[in-house]
Each structure stands twice: as C-alpha cells, then as structure tokens.
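Weekly structure sync - notes
Attendees: PM, LS, DV (DV joined late)
Agenda: review two folding runs queued last week.

Item 1: First target. Sequence and structure tokens pasted below for the record.
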Amino acid sequence: SRLFRISEPVQYNSYGFSDGAWMRDARGHGSVIYLTNGHYGSNLLEYRDMDSFKSGQASNSYKLPYSFTGTGHVVFNGAFYYNRAFSRDIIRYDLRHRYVGAWTTLHDVEFAVDESGLWLLYPALDTEGFHQEVILLIQLRPRDLQPIRSFRTGLRRGRYGNTFLVCGVLYAVDSMDRRFANVTYAFDTHTFTHTMPSLAFTNLHSHTSQVSYCPLDKKLYAWDNGHQMMYDVVFAY
C-alpha cells in the first residue's frame, strides 16, 4: 500500500523537552504508551493508556542500565530498542524482565517498525567514491539484532528531516523545522525502486525530532518541540 495523503497533525499532549519520542509497542496489545524525554537520558516512562498519558499519570518507569541517546528508538514485542549513549552499541532491553537481552555494535542508527517487523536506518560510506554517507535500510532479527536483509537507499545523510517506514516503504520528509514540509522521497523494499512523491507534511511547532509509524493503529506518532502529535495516513490502495 502506498501513501496517498498525510493528515494535519492532532496534538495529544504538551510535555517535556523540545526533543523526545513517544510510541506504542508495535507488536503489543492494549493501549500502553512509552515515552523518552530529551535527546539523552536513562528513563523510559510507561502510561497505561492515552487518558493516563494526557493526565501525566505514568504507570511505570524503567531505569535503563545504559543511557539512551537520540530519538530513534522503538518498543517492539516487549523490548525497548535504542542507541546506547557515548558508545557504538545498540541495545535490546527486555521490559518485563528488565535486563539487556542483546546488543551489537552499530553507530548512530534509527529504528523503525512496520507490518513486517523491526528495521534500522544506518549511515554508511558510499562505496561509489562520493565520500558521502548514504542510508542503508536493514531488517533485523529482533531477538539478537542480526541483519536479515539490507537495502541501499538513495538518501544521503543530513539531506532530509525525518523518516518513517510504512508497509515496506521508507519515506523521508524534507525538513524537520519548516512548518510546511513535504515527503519528497520514498524507497520501496518490495520493488527496489525510488520515487519522488510530494505529500504535504506539517511540522506544526517547527521542530519535529521524531516521526514513527505504528502498524497497530496505522498512525504516525511525532514529537514536535515538546508537543506529542499524531497524524492519520491515507493509503492510495
């Protein structure tokens, strides 16, 4: 399914620093919401449902054994996947048993989840001699973080705002801080093709540090300058 349109964002809360991330467990049940506040920290907050989140009533707090950095983490099948701060490691942290279940050495990645599983975006030096970093899209085995398959996209590092993955298609927004932005790039893992869509994308508060697709409710979750936003997506077919 290809995206046809992205709705205007709806604000669900106003909380925290300008950077952060909020999400659901893409393989979970129920309506639990997870949140990290800031670009760096060691706490993952859990809210029982949207009402608890809106009223600021956290039901659980996880003190991570290693601090996170960035906003490109996900919760998938009961585990929190994130970049470990001040290191070149990515970590799988088991939420139920509260321990590190797996880690591997990869630097500066962003995780993504879609209908087919767990992915990461990884900047790698272009082998064609341009000395620029291109973005690789890698599907991971969630249990041990081993790569299943890898795709070389046409995205260059630092040339776009946010990315998100929907139904095996990677989309890139051209700006994270321009209010009226556009999705201007798509890479389809089914056909190995690039397209240049032009889908309007609104950064309402002009500083979107996270955009994540949730296959449970088919919505985009975004953190925009301390505001937690949600977008509906409309499919072409």
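Item 2: Second target, run right after the first with the same settings.
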Amino acid sequence: MGAHDDASDEQLLVAWKAGDQAAGMALVRRYDRSVARFFAYKLERGPESEDLAQATFLAVLSGDFRGESSFRTYLFAVARNQLLRCIRERVRDRQRFDPSETSIAALELSPSAVLVVRQRNRLLLLALRRLPVDTQIMLELHYWEQMKIKDIAEVLELNINMVKARMKRGRERLEREMEALAESKEQLETTRDELSNWAERLRNELR
C-alpha cells in the first residue's frame, strides 16, 4: 500500500502543486485510464490522445482548482476543454464548430478509430460518434464513469435541467442512430437491452 493511497484527490493535488512528485504520480494513476477513455474514441488512439491526456494533467497542475466541485468533475471539465481546443485546431471552419451541434463523425477526424474494437461494440461506438460532441461526452460520462447529473452539468457548463433535457434527447437520438446503423434486428435489440452492461464491457476493453 503506497504512502499516498489514503489521501484524497484534493490532498494529492495540493501536495503535487507544492512539489511532491510522488503525490502527482499517485493522482495521475487514479485517473489515467478514465482520461485515456475520454479521448480514445473521439480521436485516434495513439500519440495525439496520449498528448491530450498528458496536457490535461499538466493543465490541472497549473490550473486554479478552488474546490467548488469534486476534483473528478474538474478533471473532466479540463479534459473537455483540451478536446475542444484540439478539434478547433483541426477543423477547417473553426467558427462553425459547435460541440452542442456537431458530431465527431461529421468532422471525420478519426474514421478508423472504431475499427479496433470488437464487433459487438461497433454499433454502440458508431452511434455515439454520430451524436453532437457534448451529447457524446454527456452519455459517456453517465454510462462509463457513472457520473451524476449535477457533475455532468458542471463539466459541460450547463444547468441541471438543461442536462436532463439533453440527456433524454441524447438517449433518443442514440437509439435512432443505432436503428439506422444496425445490420440486423437482433443486433439492435441486443444493444438496446444491454446498453448499460455493454458500455461497461466497452469501458473494460479500453483499459
């Protein structure tokens, strides 16, 4: 058991900012898989995603976390900002990119990224990537990270009622996208009935 295992996220961050590199490593180890998952199917897995994950933790280190939310909520808010910055740097018309309207699939940033997952997970991932970026983030945080609505609202800088409404519309849109992409009725029914379990299996696959 490590010296920092019992410390809270906030305690580790304070120690890291004070120069305790071991505390920083302990904090990164707690969340490195979650942050890697966040970027994995929005951009190609590889150097760019790894660089964004590293940039996220460095931004946390240099940032001004005030404890107004949980550390995990703050971390994913930083990760989202890193993702949006990266996308805006890559798309041709930066002014027209709107994460509440534009999907990863529409941007065609990483068309081969989904090919690396098992066949049974392709339908869910392809459908998620056809949702607006912020809706994709919202559902992934809900299913993969089991994040509460109020925390998702803080990540997306929205009020709780708006998140609830968008979550409902997002689930409905996800179902429509799966219906459009499904190769068979059996594939669609399996995905619909086991969405939560399927998302958990996908989460484990990304470790």
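Discussion on item 2: Residues 9-205 form one domain.
Action: LS to circulate a short write-up before next sync.
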